[in-house]
Every structure is written in structure tokens, then in C-alpha cells.
Design brief:
Low-confidence stretches: none
Largest sheet: 9 strands, mixed, barrel
Mean pLDDT: 94
Strand content: 25-35%
Helix content: 10-25%
Number of strands: 25
Radius of gyration: 23 Å
Strand order of the largest sheet: 16-17-18-19-21-22-23-24-25
């Protein structure tokens, strides 16, 4: 399927985009469709229509559609138990609560675990999670803490098990099945792929790399009742508040307290959403016949994720579909430079520190510069631009490329913001203060990352 396109945008949507810019929210894209017509299609430079984006937990909702397709084909029942689906993992020591867990329990986030099972007992240091190689087996080897089919508990491991169920029941690799039965019928890019754990299990809870326009097609299919690909009755259940999330989501956005269906969130007034870490949303508002998609990275300040959703739901509620305006060209947000930089090139030997950073070097030219960090003998260079984003490459390819901006501040400090825009979104913020011959650096690393970075406060002396 293809959406009809306008040569304009919608005034209310453009006002929302202006608001996000003013707030410093790292939005990457926003697409809004009324019926089958795009009324806004915005990509913030360097993102473009064909850029694949990490969708994180939006993957869970797409995964649930794969289960729905298998159900329509008569290849499984939602009441099938894990003991029959995964005999290779079942031993005399396997907990009965695991054996009795059903596909429906997994879809509703009513597994017997109170947290993501493959994270249980895992060391998480300096923002790097050292997960086990096999995420599926961890579901069967850890000890659950309650009976399945009782209360809602958000377990990304349950979604990973569901993606393996798609493979086991279909007899096909996950992406092959999804392409043949969902992606190709919708005209979704063949470049779409899913990340895997270290033994090849698809990351069904967080791993889809997809174009935003293709995600819009999928949420449109759900709003339209499955378009013959998935049964409408299944989708009605999937988008209904089957699991109560009132207390489980108290620490999160208000919209997540409205209930949960089959890997899909209710967000109030009949609307529902695919929700992913960092501001990935695919939302349907059926009574307005509107769907919208955002991609972003709000991990530096997670409250921004809620702000994006609240703002756009408000826009949809009050939108005038005929109020068209010219769309603005937009860029991903960056640090605004606050003063002229008077620092010169400097090299520092760092004091002993738990991060293992031995040396740092600052270099400057007229409108840009670079920070070089030597950690345990390995060198990483972070170029940056003052008052705009520089597109840079990182040694760690899972998070590369990156956007890097800097500000020289009125108090004489230097701020650097590196935004990772590869498979692993996230960022690194660096604050630097130099007094006489001493440097102080405060670094904060955010994101679910596959590499060991830098978080902490360091000091050093000018060489």
C-alpha cells in the first residue's frame, strides 16, 4: 500500500514541531496520516525517508501481528503452552509456572517474571548490559517469582520468546516469515531487518530496524482491521485494555496506565499505540481516522517521550485537516553555542580513575574542534561543531554514525553532546571545566548500548 501525499503540512502539526524544537527534543521524524493521505511527513536532517531507524519496543507490537497471522492460518492457539512449544528447554528442574505459561500470557505481559528475564542477575556497569548469549533459554532457566496469568509485568524476554514461536511454528526464519506474510503485502522496504542475540534468536522485544513510513503502514493496517492479513477479532483484542497497568506503570507516562492488549498499549479514548524506548511511537486514533508515527531519542531525558505523545494526542484531538501550511526543513536538535570560544589546544594526563581514562586532548579550529580520549590504551576521537551538528563516525559500529555538537558557555565551561544514531541509539554528554592547569570532566552515557563507554567525573593535569 502507498499513502497519498500532499505538498503541504498541517498547521497544528507544524506548531507541535516548533514546540519540540524549542524544548530541545531530539525528534527524528513525524508522520501523520488521515485515512490514506499523508498530511505531514517530516524528517529531521540527517534522517530521510529511506533511513532505517531502531524501533525498540515497537518491535513487540509488530511481533504480536506475526502471532496473529499464524493464528489466522490455524497454525497455533493462543492457549498453547510453552512446555509443548519448547520441549528442548524442558527438564525435570523446569519450574511448573514456566511450563504452564501460554502464548496469550506472553502477549498480555502476564508471564511469571516481574522483570525482563534475560536481565535477571546480569551485571550492568557503565551503562553496558552484559546479557547472556541465549535470551530465549533464560526464560526457561531463571526462577519465576509468581504464577503466569495473574498481573501485568513488563518482560521483554517474553517478546523474544514470541519471536522464536513465530520461527518454530512457521518453520521459517523470523524475517522471511514476516516479509512473506506482512511486509511484502504492505510494500514495506526489503531493507528492513531485525537484530539478534548472540546465538541468532531475533530480538522480538526491541530489534526491528525499519523506515518510519513503513511503520505507518503497519499501524494503518491495524486501524483498518487487518486488511485481510490478520483477523479483525484478534486485532480488537490486541488493541483492548486486557491487562490492567494502573500500578505497574505509575512511574511512567500517564498514557501507559490505560491498559495493555497483545503487546499494544491503550492510551485513552479508544486510541492505542506501539511504544518504543526513546520516543518511538506508532499511534492510531480511530475516532479521528488518524494514525501517526514518531521516531526520536529522548533517553537523555525520558520525560520528553511522554511530552511527545501527550502533545500529539492533543494535536489530533483539535486538528483542522484543511488548515494547510508550507512544511519547514528541520534538523535534529543540537547545542546552541553561547559564547566565542577562547580555548587553545591542550593535552591532559588524567588522575587515576575507575573508568580507565589515561589521557585527553582538546583541539580547536574556528567553528569546530575535537575531544580525544585514551582509555586503557584505546583511542576514541569525538569531533564536534559549535552551534550545529557534525555527522561523525565512531569506532563502535553499532552506535555509529553520531551527531556531535558543542557549546562554549558564558561561565567558561565547554559542553559536548554526542547523539548515537546507529543501531543502538543513545548519547554521551560531556562537561569540561579548566582552571589554570587542571581539567575536570563530567561524562554521562545513556542508552542500551553494546559497548563500554564513559560515565563519571574525571580530573587531570595539563601536560
Amino acid at each position: 500500500m502507498e499513502f497519498k501525499s500532499r505538498n503541504t503540512s498541517n498547521r497544528k502539526v507544524e506548531e507541535a514541531l516548533d514546540f519540540f524544537d524549542r524544548e530541545g527534543i531530539a525528534l527524528h521524524s513525524l508522520l501523520v496520516a488521515y485515512k490514506d493521505e499523508l498530511i505531514t511527513e517530516c524528517y529531521c536532517h540527517p534522517f530521510e525517508r529511506d533511513t532505517l531507524h531502531r524501533m525498540y519496543s515497537v518491535t513487540k507490537s509488530i511481533n504480536a501481528l506475526g502471532i496473529g497471522i499464524l493464528l489466522k492460518k490455524g497454525m497455533l492457539s493462543l492457549d498453547d503452552r510453552l512446555s509443548s512449544l519448547f520441549p528442548e528447554y524442558i527438564t525435570e528442574k523446569t519450574d511448573e509456572r514456566i511450563k504452564n505459561t501460554t502464548i496469550r500470557n506472553l502477549l498480555m505481559m502476564k508471564s511469571p517474571y516481574s522483570r525482563t528475564c534475560y536481565k535477571i542477575g546480569v551485571r550492568n556497569g557503565n551503562n553496558v548490559s552484559l546479557y547472556p548469549d541465549d535470551w530465549v533459554s533464560s526464560f526457561f532457566t531463571n526462577t519465576p517469582d509468581h504464577d503466569a496469568d495473574t498481573f501485568f509485568s513488563y518482560d521483554t524476554g517474553a517478546a523474544t520468546v514470541l519471536s522464536r514461536i513465530v520461527e518454530k511454528v512457521s518453520g521459517m526464519k523470523y524475517m522471511d516469515f514476516m516479509r512473506d506474510n506482512l511486509f511484502s503485502p504492505l510494500g514495506i522496504s526489503k531493507e528492513t531487518y531485525i537484530l539478534s542475540d548472540n546465538v541468532g534468536n531475533p530480538q522480538g522485544g526491541s530489534g526491528i530496524m525499519m523506515r518510519p513510513i513503513d511503520l505507518l503502514k503497519i499501524i494503518y493496517l491495524v486501524k483498518e482491521g487487518g486488511m485481510g492479513i490478520i483477523d479483525e477479532d484478534y486485532l480488537k483484542d490486541a488493541t483492548s485494555p486486557l491487562s490492567d497497568t494502573t500500578l505497574a506503570s505509575m512511574s511512567n507516562m500517564r498514557e501507559r496506565r490505560m491498559g495493555y492488549g497483545y503487546q499494544i498499549w491503550s492510551v485513552g479514548d479508544g486510541a492505542y499505540a506501539f511504544v518504543g524506548l526513546g520516543g518511538q511511537f506508532a499511534v492510531a486514533v480511530p475516532d479521528k481516522d488518524i494514525v501517526f508515527v514518531t521516531t526520536a531519542d529522548t533517553q537523555i531525558y525520558d520525560a520528553y517521550s511522554s511530552l511527545i505523545l501527550k502533545t500529539l494526542l492533543g494535536v489530533v484531538e483539535n486538528i483542522d485537516l484543511e488548515d494547510e501550511v508550507k512544511a519547514k526543513e528541520r534538523s535534529t536538535v543540537f547545542l546552541e553555542n553561547k559564547a566565542e570560544c577562547h580555548l587553545s589546544d591542550m593535552h591532559f594526563v588524567m588522575d587515576e580513575n575507575p573508568i580507565g581514562v589515561g589521557e585527553t586532548t582538546l583541539s580547536f579550529s574556528r567553528n569546530n574542534g575535537s575531544l580525544t580520549i585514551v582509555k586503557n590504551g584505546d583511542k576514541e576521537v569525538y569531533p564536534f561543531a559549535f552551534g550545529k551538528n557534525a555527522l561523525i563516525e565512531l569506532k563502535e559500529k553499532s552506535s555509529s554514525p553520531a551527531l556531535s555538537s558543542a557549546s562554549y558557555n558564558s561561565d567558561g565551561t565547554l559542553s559536548i553532546w554526542v547523539q548515537f544514531i546507529g543501531e543502538c541509539l543513545g548519547g554521551l554528554t560531556i562537561e569540561i571545566g579548566i582552571k589554570e592547569k587542571r581539567i575536570s570532566m563530567r561524562m554521562r552515557l545513556v542508552g542500551e548500548l553494546m559497548f563500554e563507554g564513559y560515565s563519571g567525573v574525571l580530573t587531570g593535569t595539563l601536560r
